[in-house]
Amino acid sequence: MKVSFPHMGYSPIAFKWLLENIGHECIMPPEPSKKTLDLGVRYSPEFACIPFKILTGTYLEVVEAGAELILTSGGMGPCRAGYYWVMHQYLLEELGKDVKVMAFELPLCDLKDFWKKLRYLRKTGGVSAKEFVEKVKITWEKIKAIDDLEIRSHELRPLETKRGETTRKLDLALDMVDQANTSEQIEDARQEGLKLLNAMTLDKSRNPLKVGIIGEIYVVLEPAANHYLQIMLGEMGVQTDRSIYLSSYTRKNTIVNLEGDIFKMAQPYLNEAPIGGHGVNSIGETVLYAKHGFDGVVQLAPFACIPEIVAKSIIPSVSRDLDIPVLTMFIDEQTGKAGVQTRLEAFVDLMEYKREKKFSKEESLVI
Amino acid sequence: MAKIGIPRTLAYFSYYPFWETFFSQLGHEVVVSSPTSKAILDKGVKEAVNDACIPIKIYHGHVADLAGRVDFIFCPRMVSVRKYGDFGTETFCPKFLGLPDMVRLSMSELPPIIDVRVDLKQGRKAMDQVCQEIGRLLGNPEKEVESAQKKATAVQKKYDRLLQQEILPDEAMTMALTPGATPQSSQPVQPDLKIAVLGYPYTIYDHYLNVGLLSILRKENVKVYTQDMLRNKTMNKYGQTLPKNMFWYYSNRAVNATLYYLDRPDIDGIIHVTAFACGPDSMVDRLMEIETHRRSKLPFLSVAIDEHTAETGVRTRVEAFLDMLRYRRESL
Ligand code: SF4
Ligand code: SF4
Predict the structure, then answer these.
(1) What distance in angstroms lies between residue B94's CA and the mean position of ligand 2's atoms?
(2) CA dihedral A264, A266, A271, A275 (to 10 degrees)
(3) Is the overall model pTM greater than 0.90, yes or no?
(4) Strand order in the sheet with B300-305
(5) Tens digits of residue pLDDT in A315-348
(6) Where in chain A are the domains?
(7) Do B274 and B198 have their domain in common?
(8) Interface confidence (ipTM) of the complex
(9) Pocket test for ligand 2, best of B278, B285, B309 (most atoms within 8 A of CB)
(10) Are B64 and B111 part of one and the same domain?
């Protein structure tokens, strides 16, 4: 069957591999572009959040390319994302498209449904249960390798001496992961890729600003949706730590995962969890980044994103109490790259100024 | 004895009779904020985060209206009132969930806020604890609270029954709260048209917010049907005909009631009142529209309201819609 899925950051590499190795044809979702967005805006409800619109656009593109089945995630709320697939199915039907949107609800909520859908995928692909499990495991390895490489790139980019080198090396490294077919090969690709990145000429004398990236999952994970904000910051000489990676739920590879209960961190400010999306996380993560001595936090959210609005009304208090600057960026279809750049530059200036002030204060204390 | 301020919006339209009775039985004085007005709206716009939806802004305005003249603001955290949905996880809209914190952190000089958490997913029993918690806060003994709760529950039942008799909230509230009040229906006895007006109670019943939609309809001799006139059981049955339920209480009610009214042969049309920048409504509205067209031939009108909605604009659109319905009836 011709199967597709939403585009999220670098993850399509892994999902493509999975589909092709369980006997399906993968219709690769294109990286969201102006065309994707235009299509999405045209056929989505006016006030739908931007991830919804981009997905509408993506789905129309993959249907055009022949997709018969679109796999996505479900969710039990309380935010809109868990209802996306239902709406998308409605909208695609209204447009006369013959495609099925299949959502995997969290196994936690509906285990039977989850197995049923997996079985369907396996049967239509024609692989044995054992093979299937095997392939899923390898896919997971790929996702982890991809995340590791990306994390490293965000650490190194602010130190690069040749502008754009990190991005080029990362692409090479990701290609190697793309080619790998077994767990061993993936591990090799990961090691080789990290070596490539580490071998760049770096200016270690710099002491880059450190910024935490928080907010709603889709705009945080999809660089095309946030105008490649992390790369932009990196090239301005800022090190970024992102609160969400696809593999982060099970691993301790980011600051956020090192600490225990993010909801607890948020509790002094918002005494209710969850409120949907990443609303509570955003508050807790701001606290966390402040405690870890970060210079600032960027909150990324779709325009009119419900939980992030709740978070935004609360974050100023956190920012004041813990003395950490927070830049909130609401993203919609009108957001342009230049606008993002200008706001980031101003934010970087502010953080630098703060740092200088702090240092001079410390110095005067020594004297 | 304390003065308890209750904002006249959001859950007010659903549960005011309960809280009014409860607090007065305990010997406290209930102060309701003034009906929504330009002044309240302006205050709300000033106080709330600017990306919030209009009903949340208005809520801030009502809190500001009460601030100087009460001892407590009653702003319960409405989490859920039932176990519902595909995973039993239905809640109120996320903005309700964070409401007390939003209010507290974005407004200054507020009296203490009573922000008890109302989560009845585990059953109605949880309400006992909610009431006792308030009682403890206000210094009322347990026994007193118990009997106040009982009284309040009875009054609320009466209110719900009145709504089910197709009486609108304004009037049903007076009738439920003033013993001996005679019914004096605000609905026409011999309506020319019957229209299902669906949406959130705080968009449908707030006359200022929807620029007098209900009175426009009244003048045109239209009988109004809303989701609040239906029993849960009826709505839930219709909810099961969807691929998946939504996650939000008020949205589910609006959607499921739409499906029900589509099946009623005497209904002439559907009006959806939706708030500008409302997250859930971006889906609710399209879903209602698509289902209306799939399941019936009924005309569908969506009225979006925001702080700049002009009365004439709504009036013109609604009148045109009614003309169309009348024309349609004649040609059927
Ligand atoms: S979290 Fe925000 S972007 Fe995601 S579905 Fe909810 S409102 Fe939309
Ligand atoms: S349901 Fe819509 S209108 Fe109501 S509080 Fe939530 S976002 Fe606002």
Answers:
(1) 8
(2) -100
(3) no
(4) B222-225, B193-199, B269-275, B300-305
(5) 989 999 999 999 999 998 888 899 999 999 999 9
(6) 2-127, 134-205, 208-366
(7) yes
(8) 0.85
(9) B278
(10) yes
